[in-house]
Write a structure and sequence with these properties.
16 strands, about 20% strand, 3-stranded mixed sheet, alpha/beta, 10 helices, 9-stranded mixed sheet, homodimer, globular
């Protein structure tokens, strides 16, 4: 108090983000994979939870329930009544068509125009759909809605979700480019990032960033021979942070995000691989909880991650 | 992966805590004031939310609802089914007698014996009760229950709550000591911390730590001329961290906690006092949201806080 200017000079300003995703008591998925990393990167994270579960289904059993669309709508109304503006908003795991409908109509369309909106259309992975079919149809409707053009800045499907959105089977770089071209033809979204792309003949995993004007960035990262839950949610949070703070530098944001997530997965693998319960998914060891707290110093925005990431810029 | 031992040498091990308190979308109270500071201090924080509100009532309006006792019970059952042991558990804001009954019977009594349990009996402040009267009765019943003796390690009432628990009006050091003596006579709890003690004739605010064997520590901290929401929750989180990690060094834990909370309140005051909506409570400016993200470096356990804290050790 005595020396206000000295005190304030030590303070890093915070931004405000609304994150709409799942909540689990135990484990690191959904908002529980997004909030701490973004807090560490100077974001106040306002969480609306689409679920209230004991843990994620990767543990094979769980209790709790989805949030009702009425509760979700009402929570946002309450927040809007006292605080009008967010720098960014994230939409992650959405349990049903009804909830997504509410989020789009009652929340996203009510946000201020300069709020950066990033949507992860979480539908499935590795060839398996794990949401209701109607949700896929609704994502397509929303992304092709004219009001979406100045609303949703970035969409982050994984390979399987990109296939669902475009009805194109992605098996190599050519079919991936076909899918991205069709994506921009069908949908009124300016940027897309396709995560976790695996081609049969490649050692590494690819993440692709593309803009509607035809620029495309390829980031390659070594595969870790295990299955994790929550890595997509962590990816979403870190990418949103970089994308907003860099004013839309998609290539730089993507490279940084892939590096950070890879580092966290490495730490999670090393700390978690020997621990029970041992389980295998698709022949690979399954590690149910990301080690975010243990990875804290690598999550900070000023940490320079060095891992085997290579990037490439091409055009569609 | 190539150099596992080097990677692991950079990792600080995490502990596991169950935190049962309120959730608000916007603002920093309850679990939203506990989770980030404890994450920063290397705790995995499993949150069971007793409310799901848009914001705390200090904003004068809010939406959302309390969690049902059935949901709270079911969430813990789900967690217990996959993960048996916590290093510590916190009970913070509990909205009703039914919920507290469930937390005690279905959660606390089911925890492993060596889990450190800290309960903040949140009932009111500044002479005002803001929960149902039946909750006060239930706290008294729980703290005097014989099973409590090896269960609840520390209870953290504020001055008003200590008055409610002991039916003694605390107006000076003598009546405070009377209340603490009676507390240990009535209740089967080994440690108590009385927070935010204001005597009419004193400049500073006192926090008192006392053990059932008669030791008592007084920590004095300068008053900040404003009213905050969430400071008690932050206090609870930091105190639990220190109390567990120091193996029950109450005096050291109390001094550290008071210092950290004071620093955060200073930062919150300086950043928040000029911002709308301007409102006064009991003639003092009201600052609704703690600046936890902005205070990040001061929340880390290795940060040495220097503020005007004095301590004194006496006996009851």
């Amino acid at each position: 108090m005595r020396d206000k200017s000295q005190l304030l000079s030590q303070i890093h300003p915070a931004r405000d983000i609304l994150s709409i995703s799942s909540h689990v008591v135990h484990g690191k998925v959904g908002n529980d994979a997004i909030q701490f990393p973004l807090n560490t990167r100077h974001w106040n994270v306002d969480c609306i939870h689409t679920t209230n579960l004991s843990n994620h289904p990767g543990y094979k059993q769980f209790k709790g329930s989805k949030s009702s669309p009425a509760l979700i709508e009402s929570l946002f109304e309450g927040v809007r009544d006292i605080k009008l503006q967010y720098d960014a908003a994230i939409v992650g795991y959405v349990a049903s068509k009804d909830i997504l409908e509410t989020i789009y109509q009652k929340i996203l369309l009510q946000l201020a125009e300069d709020t950066i909106v990033v949507v992860d259309p979480i539908m499935g992975d590795n060839g398996r759909l794990y949401v209701e079919e109607a949700l896929v149809v609704l994502y397509k409707e929303i992304f092709s809605d004219e009001r979406c053009e100045n609303l949703i800045d970035l969409v982050t499907p994984n390979q399987f979700e990109m296939e669902m959105l475009t009805d194109i089977k992605i098996s190599d770089l050519d079919t991936l480019k076909d899918a991205i071209r069709l994506f921009f033809k069908l949908y009124k979204v300016k940027h897309v990032v396709v995560t976790s792309v695996n081609f049969e003949d490649s050692d590494g995993m690819l993440c692709i960033g593309a803009k509607s004007d035809g620029e495309m960035y390829t980031v390659s990262v070594p595969k870790i021979d295990a299955v994790f839950s929550g890595s997509g949610d962590l990816f979403l949070g870190i990418l949103t942070d970089r994308f907003v703070k860099s004013n839309g530098d998609l290539a730089g944001s993507l490279k940084h995000t892939v590096s950070v997530v890879h580092k966290v997965l490495e730490i999670t693998y090393e700390l978690g691989i020997d621990q029970p319960p041992k389980r295998y998914v698709d022949g690979k060891p399954y590690v149910p909880a990301l080690r975010l707290v243990e990875s804290r110093r690598f999550l900070q925005e000023d940490y320079i991650v060095k891992c085997g990431v290579t990037t490439d810029t091409t055009f569609l």
